Amino acid sequence: MRCLTNFNPSFKDHSMIKVGDQLPATTLMEFSEVEGGGCSLGPNPVDVAKASAGKTIALFALPGAFTPTCSAKHVPGYIQHFDALKAAGVDEIWCVSVNDAFVMGAWARDQKTNGKVRMLADGDAAFAKATGLTLDLTGKGMGLRSNRYSMLVKDGKVVTLNIEAPGKFEVSDAATLLAQAKA
Fold first, then answer.
1. Reduced to 3 states, what is the DSSP secondary structure of residue 132?
2. Sign of CA dihedral 62, 64, 68, 71
3. CATH superfamily membership of 27-182
4. Hey, which of 48, 78, 110, 162 would disulfide with 171, CB 3.0 to 4.6 Å?
5. CB 5: neighbour CB atoms within 10 A?
């Protein structure tokens, strides 16, 4: 029998987020290259609850910045479908990854996302853990990451959720989320 010396009675079971749930009350970080809109240069906190209030958000998450599938297909798809997503009622597109804000800022420059996709850093995987959508890539030298998924969020509440099987890129693409936004 194991002794539970570190038992925390306030611990909550972090089951997986589902349609109808609110986004977790966490803070992501966003790198800003220009001052303005209340944002200073460098990393700025993004309160998920406040940033999603009253908006329709196409949110997609992925294992890591500069990784092959994410850079070649996932982010470019959302940039390509930006106008159609806006026309379907999406206010903002968020890309969330377990990376620091500096890496996400560099990746935003590389992918030319400015004004189209907000590249949000989940540096300590707090958002990924809170959604229950983590991916353990420790064996591949990447540590705890986010699973690949997409969701349509309205006023902070999950309306659709598309979770990829490990190593797959079939349901979290921009075209799938666009079809759901139009429905």
1. coil
2. positive
3. Glutaredoxin (3.40.30.10)
4. 162
5. 5
Helix, strand, coil share (%) of the chain residues, nearest 5: 30, 30, 40
Question: How far apart (Å, rounded) are the C-alpha atoms in residues 141 and 31?
Answer: 25
pLDDT, one tens digit per residue, over 121-154 is 999 999 999 999 987 777 776 767 888 999 999 9
- What's the pTM? 0.86
Alpha-carbon distance of 66 to 145, in angstroms, equals 14
DSSP code, position 39: B
Q: Are 90 and 181 in contact (CB under 8 A)?
A: yes
Query: Amino acid identity of 58?
Result: A
What whole-number distance in Å separates Cα of residue 150 and Cα of residue 158?
Answer: 10
Q: Which two tokens stand for residue 95?
A: 């890309």
For range 168-183, the mean pLDDT: 94
Q: In terms of Cα–Cα distance, which of 138, 32, 130, 146 is closest to 95?
A: 146
Beta pairing class for 92-97 and 117-121: parallel
Supply the pLDDT for residue 37: 62
- And the tokens for 166? 């490990």
pLDDT at 114 exceeding the cut of 50: yes
Residues with active-site annotation: 70
